[in-house]
Structures are given as structure tokens and as C-alpha cells.
Structure to design on (662 residues):
């Protein structure tokens, strides 16, 4: 958490690649729904190198969201070991998990989930203010820099309702990155966007990865955007059934 | 904290109509309480003043047992000369006492030579009585308002009697009474004034000079039935009443014993005053209920409507305690706005009522109960503190619910 610049080429801006951001071993998640056990994840093992750009694909109900929720410390595995950024996150309590997410993880949601009463700028600023309690002097430059990077600087005083879907998702990406997280998780980030916009959003995420070195994991159905991923994992019926590396 | 307030305010403004409705409901309750307290307070004050200043005095001293049988105005329970001396000594050494008036009270036959009826008579030294009951002259609606109107040989006749019997100022009447030994004596008196009735017992007595009362009763040295006392500061009435009681009420009973009563023990209005206080308390409980229900309702709605937002901010790392404070502050702000609006509107209404009263007093005849509604700072602060505290209380449950939501469940909520 020492890098404070996202400007391309700013020395030390990129995170060191190579170390594992995620180490998951035999992750299993079982839901008990109406007395019937649903095994949403079965023995998923996976290591994620820092700076990766990874897509999870698979049919509906295959466990993509479940896996991202575990990696994002929003939920706990039924069994298995999980380390995120060197922390055994299975031991964190509710409050610790929230603090951990606020410090290490950025989220991009399918339906953008901006705070409707805040402007674009305030939405990006939110994690610095309400999660990390950073002083205003530290905030401003950082927020403007990110709005610039996602191309939303000129729209910064608009409320979410005044923005298009693509614009909202740009603001959401800026919000996810503003705290310099190690890991950004995006569950179906383009599902509510048209094809053209979906491309630009994925391209933007990749550009940000290139500049900052933050690890991006996203789940998607959208075959058209998978091409941008460097590694594609396939989930089927709760199992990790495929790993495909592509050279972009 | 500033940012928590900012977000809370924006969320309140987002549902403008609902927030305004809640704020005005609370403000309405606050206005109601403040105006009620101000009106009843001034009503109480006016009545108490009219009772004490027009005939009762602040404190009275009697022979023990007199007050218990005051309806019959017993003649055999008058004060002994030694008791009177003791009372005067005690009053002389108490700096809080502004004045005292000895009174003879008795039932008499009252005759216009055409018609005869019963009348309660109070015989007093006019200067002393006017000093103890400064509003007594104001009650004289016709005739002489100076102490000369109560010079020897004169009588102030109560208005209702005067009207019923067709008595006018300048008429001659006869007052006849039986003393405790059974001898009957009468005196012809000149009507010098007509006396407006005052609320409560003793408010319809006729007044004559002390010496005339003495002459009619023929009980040398032991005619005085009561000593009415005025204090310099009415606020001290309970304290000074207790001090006088300490000095004058002998340990044992018997013939020597005296009794000290404050106005509230003598006038049935004190129970009305207590009733008014009870009603004010009831109003405040209503206000609490209004605030509790309206804030609880709004905050439950707010949490329910914003489940996905709560899920979002929780997911990105907002601590549960922060989420709790967001909703608490929102509820409290509603209370603060309601209290502020209520105080402003309430103060304006009270001011208008106060000004309006003045014009009534100038325009018409003398109003005995001219109200001057006022509300102490204490009542205002109490109402505000109450509203804000109850708002906070009402927000606790919804805020706790919001802070305990699991982000994944909340995010799935549609
Ligand atoms: N809270 C839950 N309670 C019970 N079952 C659940 C719960 N969440 C997910 N599941 C089940 O777990 C399995 C995996 O669900 P998950 O949401 O991870 O799938 P997904 O791959 O994200 O699907 P989609 O592509 O439709 O988003 C499904 O069978 C689902 O019904
Ligand atoms: Mg899913």
C-alpha cells in the first residue's frame, strides 16, 4: 500500500508481479437450501499471481459468483484453505473481514452499485473517506487522477442517475481502484452493458492493470470479452475444469 | 463525522416529501406541547395571581381547626390575643413577609329593607387588606376604589348579590349577625362599591371595616379569625410557608395551637393546577409517541429501500459501526429538524398569542384572566432534548439491522 500514483510510467507505480495474491486449496462451499444440500463449489484449488488478468467462465449455476464471493472475503468456504494477500481470511470475523476488504480488495458490480446520493467524484472518494478515513489533502489528487484515468473527470459532478451505464461502470472502476487494492473482483461487470461499451470497459480494466499492476479477477458469460483475459478458468458444476492461458 | 452527516442529509433530501412530512409531524407535536405548556402555564399563573391577589393572600394563619370548618365560619375558633401577638412577632422577624392583614369573618343577614338574604362578611383594615390583596381594588367595578371606600360605615357588596337585589352605590343596607354568645346585633351601612366575583370560595364575600365587624360581633379582643399574609416573592411561598409553620405551629394541639396554610392548601384551584400539570405531562407522552412511531416508520422504510446500497457499502469495506452511525444520524437529523421547526413555529405562535392578548386588554373591559403565554427556556430545551433522544432511540433498531446485514445477502436483494 505504498504506491500512490496511477500515472503510466510513474516510478514504483506498478505492483510487483510474481507473488501470489490468492492461494486457494480444496475450497468447498455447500449451501443448505430447504434441507437440500447444494454443493456450489467442490475442491477448487487455485493460485493467482499478482498482476494477473483472469476470467472465470462457465454456465449459469456453475459457481462463479460463489467463488468470487469467497475470494472477496464476502463469504466463507465450508472447507478448504484460503489465503488472500498473505492473510488466512477464513479466520476473520465480520468486522475484520470488512476492514480487510476495505484495505485490500476492490469491487466492480454487475449493476454498478454507485451510491445514488453522491456525485461521481464523491463516489470515487467514498472508500477513502468512509472506509479508510484519509484526510482531504490526500484524497483530492488521488480521486481526480483516477477520474482522469477512467475518462470521467469532466463528469465528476454528476449524480449516477445522470450517467450512462458505461459511465457508471467507469466511475465504479475508479472507486474500486482508489484505495490501491491488491485485488479487484468483478462479477459480470459487462452484463448490463451493450457490446461496444462492454469492450471499452474490459479494455479500461486491462489498462488500469497495466498501469497499476492490480490483479483483476472477473466472472462472465460474455464470450465476446473473454478474449481480453490472459487466463481463463472454466467452472462446471462447482468444479474448476479448465485453465487456458492466452497471450494478449 | 461531517461526511456521515452529509450522506445522511442527502439521503433525507432524496425522499423529500416523506422527510418533510415526518419533520412537520414532529414539529406539530413540539408546537402543540410548547403552546399547551405556555397557555396552561399562563392560565395557571393568572388564576393563581387572581386568587391570591384578590382575596386569598399567599399564606394564611388561623386557630387550629378553623380551616377544617371554614364553610360555617365558626366564631368560637377566633385567635386569642396571645396568639395574635405571637403571629405578629413571627411576621415581624421574617424579612420575606411584605404585609399582613387581620380579618374577621362571619355569616350575616343582609337586608335592603325590602329583601333579606345571607351574606359572608370579611371585615378588614382597608390599607392592610389592599396591601395583602393588591387586586382587590381592581375588583371594585362601581364605586370607590380607594381605601376610603372601606372606611367605617361603608360596605362593598358582591356583584351577584347587588344585581339580584337591585342594589346601587349609595344605597343603605343593614347587616345583622349573631355572636357566639347568641346575642344579635346589627349595623346600618352605606354601599360604597360593587365587588366583582373572584373564582373560588371567599370570592363572593362582602367587605366592611374591621372596627364595624368588631362592633357587630361584640367579641372584644378575640374577633380576628385569620391573618392573611403577602410575601415579597411568590416563588418563595412553599419555603416561607414551611418556615412560618415551623415557628407558629406548636407541637401539641389544644387551644394554643395555630395552623399555617399556603394558598395551594386553601384553594381548590391547586388541584386544577395539578390536573393541568398532568395534562401537560400527557401531551409530552403523546409527543414521545409521535416521534417514536414516525421516526421508527421512516427508518424501517429507509433501511428496507436501501438494502442493496447497504450491501454495496458493506462489501467495499464500510465497517458495521459506520453503517450504524449513518442510519442513526439520519434518524436524529429528522428529530433535530422537527424540534427546530417546532420551536420556531411554537415560539411564533406564542408570541402572536401574547401580543393578541395585549390588544384585547386595551380594547375591552378589564380581563381578569388576560393570559400572557410565555414558555421558559427550560421547557424548550426539555422538548428538544426529548425529541432528539427519542429520535435516536427509534433509529437504533433499524440502524442495527442495517449494520448487521450480510453483504452477499444484501447485494442479492432486488
Ligand atoms: N445463498 C445460496 N443458497 C443456496 N444456494 C445457493 C446460494 N447461492 C448460490 N447457490 C447455488 O450455488 C450454485 C452456484 O451459484 P453461483 O451463483 O455461484 O453460480 P454462477 O456461476 O454465478 O451463476 P450465474 O452465471 O447464473 O451467475 C447454484 O446452484 C446456486 O443455486
Ligand atoms: Mg453469478
Amino acid at each position: 500500500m505504498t504506491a500512490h500514483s496511477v500515472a503510466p510510467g510513474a516510478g514504483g507505480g506498478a505492483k510487483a508481479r510474481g507473488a501470489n495474491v490468492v492461494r486457494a486449496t480444496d475450497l468447498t462451499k455447500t449451501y443448505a437450501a430447504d434441507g437440500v444440500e447444494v454443493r456450489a463449489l467442490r475442491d477448487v484449488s487455485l493460485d493467482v499471481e499478482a498482476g494477473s488478468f483472469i476470467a472465470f467462465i462457465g454456465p449459469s449455476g456453475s459457481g462463479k459468483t460463489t467463488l468470487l464471493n469467497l475470494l472477496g472475503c464476502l463469504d466463507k468456504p465450508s472447507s478448504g484453505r484460503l489465503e488472500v494477500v498473505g492473510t488466512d481470511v477464513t479466520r476473520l470475523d465480520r468486522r475484520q473481514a470488512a476492514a480487510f476488504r476495505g484495505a485490500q480488495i476492490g469491487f466492480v458490480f454487475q449493476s454498478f452499485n454507485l451510491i445514488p446520493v453522491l456525485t461521481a467524484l464523491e463516489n470515487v472518494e467514498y472508500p477513502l473517506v468512509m472506509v479508510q478515513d484519509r484526510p482531504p489533502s490526500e484524497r483530492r489528487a488521488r480521486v481526480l487522477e483516477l477520474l482522469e484515468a477512467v475518462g470521467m473527470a469532466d463528469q465528476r459532478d454528476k449524480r449516477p442517475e445522470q450517467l450512462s451505464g458505461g459511465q457508471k461502470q467507469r466511475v465504479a472502476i475508479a472507486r474500486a481502484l482508489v484505495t490501491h487494492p491488491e485485488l479487484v473482483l468483478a462479477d459480470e461487470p459487462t452484463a448490463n452493458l451493450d457490446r461496444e461499451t462492454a469492450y471499452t470497459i474490459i479494455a479500461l480494466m486491462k489498462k488500469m492493470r497495466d498501469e497499476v499492476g492490480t490483479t483483476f479477477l472477473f466472472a462472465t458469460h460474455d464470450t465476446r470479452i473473454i478474449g481480453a483475459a490472459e487466463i481463463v478458468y472454466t467452472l462446471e458444476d462447482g468444479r474448476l475444469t479448465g485453465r487456458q492461458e492466452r497471450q494478449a | 463525522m461531517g461526511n456521515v452527516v452529509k450522506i445522511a442529509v442527502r439521503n433525507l433530501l432524496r425522499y423529500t416529501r416523506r422527510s418533510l412530512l415526518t419533520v412537520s409531524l414532529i414539529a406539530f407535536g413540539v408546537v402543540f406541547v410548547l403552546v399547551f405548556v405556555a397557555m396552561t402555564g399562563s392560565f395557571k399563573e393568572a388564576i393563581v395571581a387572581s386568587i391570591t391577589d384578590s382575596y386569598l393572600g399567599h399564606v394564611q394563619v388561623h386557630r387550629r381547626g378553623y380551616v377544617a370548618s371554614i364553610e360555617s365560619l365558626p366564631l368560637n375558633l377566633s385567635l386569642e390575643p396571645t396568639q395574635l401577638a405571637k403571629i405578629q412577632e413571627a411576621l415581624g422577624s421574617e424579612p420575606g413577609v411584605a404585609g399582613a392583614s387581620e380579618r374577621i369573618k362571619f355569616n350575616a343577614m343582609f337586608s335592603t329593607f325590602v329583601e333579606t338574604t345571607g351574606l359572608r362578611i370579611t371585615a378588614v383594615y382597608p390599607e392592610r387588606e389592599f396591601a395583602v390583596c393588591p387586586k382587590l381594588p381592581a375588583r371594585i367595578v362601581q364605586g370607590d376604589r380607594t381605601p376610603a371606600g372601606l372606611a367605617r360605615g361603608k360596605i362593598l357588596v358582591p356583584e351577584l348579590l347587588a344585581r339580584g337585589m337591585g342594589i346601587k352605590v349609595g344605597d343603605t343596607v343593614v347587616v345583622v349577625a349573631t355572636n357566639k354568645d347568641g346575642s344579635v346585633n346589627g349595623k346600618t351601612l352605606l354601599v360604597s362599591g360593587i365587588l366583582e366575583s373572584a373564582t373560588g370560595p371567599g370570592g363572593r364575600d362582602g367587605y366592611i371595616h374591621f372596627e364595624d365587624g368588631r362592633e357587630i360581633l361584640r367579641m372584644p379582643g378575640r374577633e380576628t379569625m385569620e391573618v392573611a399574609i403577602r410575601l415579597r416573592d411568590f416563588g418563595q411561598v412553599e419555603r416561607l410557608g414551611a418556615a412560618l409553620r415551623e415557628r407558629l405551629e406548636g407541637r401539641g394541639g389544644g387551644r394554643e395551637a395555630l395552623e399555617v396554610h399556603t394558598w395551594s392548601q386553601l384553594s381548590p384551584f391547586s388541584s386544577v393546577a395539578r390536573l393541568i400539570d398532568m395534562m401537560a405531562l400527557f401531551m409530552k407522552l403523546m409527543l414521545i409517541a409521535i416521534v417514536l412511531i414516525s421516526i421508527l416508520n421512516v427508518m424501517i422504510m429507509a433501511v428496507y429501500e436501501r438494502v442493496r446500497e447497504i450491501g454495496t457499502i458493506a462489501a467495499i469495506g464500510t465497517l458495521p459501526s459506520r453503517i450504524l452511525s449513518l442510519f442513526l444520524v439520519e434518524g436524529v437529523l429528522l428529530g433535530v429538524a422537527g424540534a427546530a421547526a417546532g420551536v420556531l413555529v411554537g415560539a411564533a405562535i406564542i408570541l402572536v398569542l401574547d401580543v393578541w392578548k395585549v390588544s384585547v386588554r386595551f380594547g375591552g373591559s378589564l380581563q381578569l384572566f388576560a393570559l400572557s403565554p410565555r414558555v421558559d427556556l427550560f421547557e424548550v430545551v426539555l422538548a428538544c432534548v426529548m425529541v432528539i433522544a427519542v429520535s435516536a432511540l427509534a433509529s437504533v433498531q433499524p440502524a442495527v439491522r442495517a449494520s448487521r446485514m450480510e453483504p452477499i445477502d444484501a447485494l442479492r436483494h432486488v
Notes: Strands of chain A lie at 20-33, 36-49, 53-57, 79-84, 87-88, 105-108, 183-187, 215-219, 231-236, 239-245. Residues A 31, 33, 38, 40, 58, 60-66, 221 surround adenosine-5'-triphosphate (ligand 1) (CB under 6 Å).
